[in-house]
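User: I'm writing a tutorial on reading structure tokens. Could you give me a worked example: one chain, its sequence, then its tokens, then a sentence or two explaining what the tokens reveal?
Assistant: Sure. Here is the example chain.
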Amino acid sequence: MTIWTDLADLEFKLYYLDANGIKTRVLEAGTGEPLILLHGTGGHIEAYAKNMKGLSEHFRVINIDMVGHGYTAKPDRQYGIDFYSEHLLGVIQALNLSKVYLSGESLGGWVAAWFAAEHPEYVKAMVLNTPGNVNNKPEVMKKLKDSTLKAVLEANYENVKTRLEWLMYDKSQVTDELIEARYNIYTQPSYQEAVHHIVCLQDLEIRKLYSWDPSWCGKINVPTLLAWTDHDPTSTVEEAKPIQDMIPNSELVVIKDAGHWPQWEKPEEFNTVLIDFLLKHGNETVKEESSLVTIAHLESTI
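And here are its predicted structure tokens:
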């Protein structure tokens, strides 16, 4: 299977929008309630190619290259979680969306959680996909930083392949097409400069400004599912527990036989997990809001 095969019979749009001055690449398909997908460090919209068709049967899927990534603009500044969150807000406002579902993988999950803590009024429910490295393990941070810099600054087939294989439990899932797509992104002159901003979160002094902590996670008041795997190279299933404890009423599911990209390695299972959780809790939110409106109406007539 290739990325094009997965998209071939799907009606989709690939376009750019202006998110508060940041030219942003978007892949969109489907109708209904909006679901925004956020990739991980060094990622791009192709990371969700296998999920677009299944998810678009239930949602208006909005798959973006985050700021500094893919073919989105790459400002010359530090990319902290707050900056990624501001960019996400710009995307939502540019599309005139009032409420969205969110699902983010790795860095994208971290950004989704931060955004939900800062802007809960925009979020209906979210799935955090292998957000990982809750404990800021130096060896994981060094591995991610070094492999990303090598894949970009010394870009060739083998280095990009190695970076992608690190994400997978089943290394055969790394196709030549995926390698080429990422190689073309990494060899952009603007990306060669931006990569230093991208990996800044792997430096502890910067990372600790945004580390998972009850002080901000406790503000998350939207239904949240942690989608972990049993072979995530960044953290064990047991290490999901701290995040689950920090985020009120969050739930945990484990996808078996997958690494850091369960959406790619186990697309059908991942889609089912995401669809079931978001639709269940999205409908509950609608019922709660309807009840509040009814109560408010009754009170106003008494």
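What the tokens reveal: The chain has 13 helices and eight strands. Confidence is low (pLDDT under 50) at residues 290-297.
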